[in-house]
Every structure is written in structure tokens, then in C-alpha cells.
């Protein structure tokens, strides 16, 4: 892998560049789902401890992002949507990114163990390792199933939040994991349908590159069907209820409908309208996950009252 360093005359790194290194948009999802996992757990946690726990989980997520950018700097420089990231643009060196990633990883795991419990800290350490090594270094460049298997890294945060409160794992936390795990492939493959050339140029074996768009469309629809039972099952557990179930049924009906529309699309028609349907389903997928976890919070609040 080509080593990329800040070139002579490159703009000097600013604070925002180091924040960008931590993938703040991805971190926001980590923070939100981890917070929900912690708050809906059946154990009361002191607000200060809860705040610190979520903060250190967020730092762990940011550390994973920095390690991902460190290793993927070569392909980030090729892809249109990533070439302005701090390392390809020359504002931050790969060595800096590696040091920040390792340093924040150690800090996040150690502090989470001290403020919450060591089971949750070990879980966070495993998640960082899974994302940085199993997904980024191994799966991403090796198999079109990279998103499927690697999606586990993004599905662990609510389990970590739950573990911060309870010190363990339960059916509720496993179903929150399943909700994100089975949501990840249709979410990213919908994006890949209208970003195929980026992955092709970078040599990333995304499903659209290795098997084509028609196969990707079938996989998207199949995963929306697999996802729905797990999402609704969560509503039948101790953290679910009628409010969550109503939201989940509506969202899954819309998501399955979107998957069906993608499946039925003719590629020429998709090109003609600029992948309008695929982009709409991708935006729906963002709201799908956010509203499911928001509904869990709302259900917990209603249950408390």
C-alpha cells in the first residue's frame, strides 16, 4: 500500500481536519445507538456515568474511523466522495492518523472500564479491532460480502451501551444488534448502486462491482425481507411496546416497498432519471434506523410514565 504523507505546500491541518479523521457522521450513529442501548436497559445508571460511558464509546468509534482512514488512504485518494478527506488531501499524514487511532483506542477502552465495567470495555476493544482489522484490513478488499460481515462492527454499539448498564448481554441487546446488522447491507448497497464507478476505480470488491447491479438489486430486496422480522420481534421484548411496534411496522412496510421498487427497476430507466429511486431508498434507510431507535427511547419514556 502506497504511503501517503502531507506533501510540501499542502494546507496546514486545522482542528476540523482531526475531527474529520474520526468520521463524525459515523460517530453520531455510534453515539445515538449506544445511548439508546444504555438508556432502555432495565438498570438505572447515574447520569454522569451514562454521559461518560457514551463519550468513551464515541471516542472508540472515532478511533476506529482514524484507523480506517490510515489504512484506506490509498483508495480514499481515488474515490470521488473520499478524496478530500484529511489524508488524501495532504493535510494530515498517515503516521498522525495511526497514532491518533491507537492512542484514542487505548484511552477509550481504559476509561470505559473505569467508569462503567470491564465487560463493556472489552466489548469496545473487540469492536475497534473488528472494524479496523477484520473489516478494513481484511474483508473490505477481499470479498463482496465485506459490508455483510463487516456490518457487525456498526451493530455492536447498542450492545456496548446495554453492557455498560447491565454488565452483560440479553435478547434485547442481541435484537438491537440484529436490527443494525441486517439493515447495513441494503443501506450500503443502495448507495453502491449509484456510486459503482467509485468502488470500481478503487478496486473495492463491492457487490455492484463483482456481481453487477441486477444481483445487487435482488440482494437489497432479500435483506429488507430478512430485516423486518427482527425489527418487529424487538417490539415484543421488554423494551418494546405498541408505540415501537407501530413505528416498526410502518417503516418496514416502506423499506420493503423501496426494496421491491429497486428490484423491479430497469437499469436504463435508473440511468435516465439519475438513480432517483435508489437515492430515495438510501435516504429512507437513514431515517429507518434513526426512527427505530428513537421509537425505543419514546417507548421507554411512555413506559416510565
Automatic annotation (TrEMBL):
Belongs to the UbiA prenyltransferase family. Protoheme IX farnesyltransferase subfamily. HAMAP family: CyoE_CtaB. It is found in: Cell membrane. Keywords: Cell membrane, Heme biosynthesis, Membrane, Transferase, Transmembrane, Transmembrane helix. This is Protoheme IX farnesyltransferase. Interacts with CtaA. Its main location: membrane. Pathway: Porphyrin-containing compound metabolism; heme O biosynthesis; heme O from protoheme: step 1/1. It is a multi-pass membrane protein. InterPro entries: Protohaem_IX_farnesylTrfase, UbiA_prenyltransferase, UbiA_prenylTrfase_CS. Converts heme B (protoheme IX) to heme O by substitution of the vinyl group on carbon 2 of heme B porphyrin ring with a hydroxyethyl farnesyl side group. Its EC number is 2.5.1.141. It comes from Paracoccus marinaquae.
